[in-house]
Amino acid sequence: MKIFDGERVIDKQSVTIKGEKIVNIGGPAPEGAGIIDAKGCYVGPYL
Fold first, then answer.
1. Fewer CB within 10 Å: N-end or C-end of the chain?
2. Interatomic CA distance for residues 1 and 33, integer angstroms
3. 46 in a domain, yes or no?
4. Roughly how many angstroms between the first and final C-alpha of the chain, as a whole number?
5. Structure confidence by residue, pLDDT tens digits, 1-47
6. Residue numbers of the domain that contains 13
7. What stretches of 1-47 adopt beta strand conformation (E)?
8. Residue among 16, 38, 42, 17 at smallest CA distance from 27
9. CB of 45 within 8 A of CB of 37?
10. Residue 38, domain member (yes or no)
């Protein structure tokens, strides 16, 4: 997944989403989390 923070693209990162909010960028997924393979996709503040 590529993350766009409004100014730059950050390549190859994981994102943890809880409800409708991004709660963590980078690092391992929490235990019991669902995993979505989003290789090649973008996420940004427009979600």
1. C
2. 17
3. no
4. 14
5. 778 777 888 787 788 888 888 888 888 888 988 888 888 887 776 65
6. 1-30
7. 2-4, 9-10, 15-18, 21-25, 42-43
8. 16
9. no
10. no
Question: 9-47: string of b/e by CB count within 10 Å (b at 16+)?
Answer: eeeeeebeeeeeeeeeeeeeeeeeeeeeeeeeeebeeee
Task: State how many domains the chain has.
Answer: 1
Asked whether residue 12 is assigned to any structural domain, the reply reads yes
Residue bearing tokens 């693209």: 9
**Domain presence at residue 37:** no
Distance (Å, rounded) from C-alpha 21 to C-alpha 4? 15
